[in-house]
Amino acid sequence: MSAHSTQTELKLIGKLILEGDLHCETGLHIGAGKGSLEIGGSDNPVVKDAFGQPYIPGSSLRGKLRALLEGFLGLAVPSELIFLSRRKGQEVRIHQSDRPDDEICLLFGRNPGRMDRVVGEPLESHNATPARLAVYDAPLDPESITPQMRDNMDDELTEVKSENSIDRITSQANPRTLERVPAGARFRVRFILDILCDEDGALVGHLVQALRLLEDDALGGGGSRGSGRVRFSNLKLTWRNREYYAAGAAPKELIAGADTTALQKRLGETGPSFIKE
């Protein structure tokens, strides 16, 4: 756990800006829901922006990173989980505690109030914690969809993957289609980490851990069936202190052109020393 305590004073010291590319190593499906189904279209379309281009919602990326970190830190166990929703068949369980040094609650925020635990007595949370991490919608780079890719796809920017489930008793097939952004597509990602006290400097390490975990996991739907494998590259980490916002001081570039391995190594060498610079 971190060095945060109930006496830790919060005041903006600066912001860490992490930007880079997310590459689709296999097709990516982040669903838009069946409300957008068109005649002759896929059963499961991908989410698109107002210009009809696929994108990765910040909420989808943020939620996946949080889930991976909860598991990595050993917090995805019944005694550490609360119900965010208890609607039958749509239960949502996430980690939350009232501990001031809880990195998940520091990164992703915490609301006060009474919440039902999955196991044990309800959680009576009295601490409201501002979320340090903001994850933005990731737009598609249209240039990453090459003419050769377009010639072999069902749509200008997406492909349709046909799948089948087989009844184990009758052997009856249940075909379905899944719209995906094709392998080779590239999205621009942007994360901002607010540093509100000296102790927050260590939280960037957890963000990088989550990115590395995601590279060996899957983003979006169909991960166990081959979809959603991603890779990060061209990562740039920039520090903007209070003087940047108050007097127009120049930002400090901490690292550029890195993958997650190089970024993690660099942070391991320097630690949160950027706060003092």
Show the helix and strand layout.
Elements lengths: L13 E11 L30 E2 L1 H15 L8 E5 L6 E4 L7 H6 L4 E3 L7 E3 L7 E3 L2 E2 L7 H5 L7 E8 L6 E8 L5 E10 L7 H13 L14 E12 H6 L4 E7 L1 H11 L7
Antiparallel strand pairs: 1-11, 1-12, 2-8, 3-4, 5-6, 7-11, 9-10, 12-13
Helix pairs in contact: 1-4, 4-6
Describe the model.
The structure is a single chain. The protein has 277 residues and is an alpha+beta fold. It has a domain at 14-57 and 131-276. Helix content is 20%, strand content 28%. It contains 6 helices and 13 strands. α1 (58-72) crosses α4 and α4 packs antiparallel against α6 (260-270). The longest helix is centred in the first third of the chain and has 15 residues, at 58-72. The two termini are 25 Å apart.
Which features characterize this protein?
277 residues, alpha+beta, 6 helices, 20% helix, two-stranded antiparallel sheet
Summarize it.
The chain is of the alpha+beta class and 277 residues long. Helices cover 20% and strands 28% of the residues.
Structural class by helix and strand composition: alpha+beta
Biggest sheet, spatial arrangement of strands? 7-11-1-12-13
Compute the CA-based radius of gyration. 21 Å
Binned, the helix content reads 10-25%
Q: How many DSSP H or I helices?
A: 6
Sketch the major β-sheet.
5 strands, antiparallel
Q: Which parts are unreliable, with pLDDT below 50 for 5 consecutive residues or more?
A: none
Strand content: 25-35%
Rough outline? globular
The overall pLDDT average reads 91
Sketch the topology as an H/E string, one letter per element: EEHEEHEEEEHEEEHEHEH
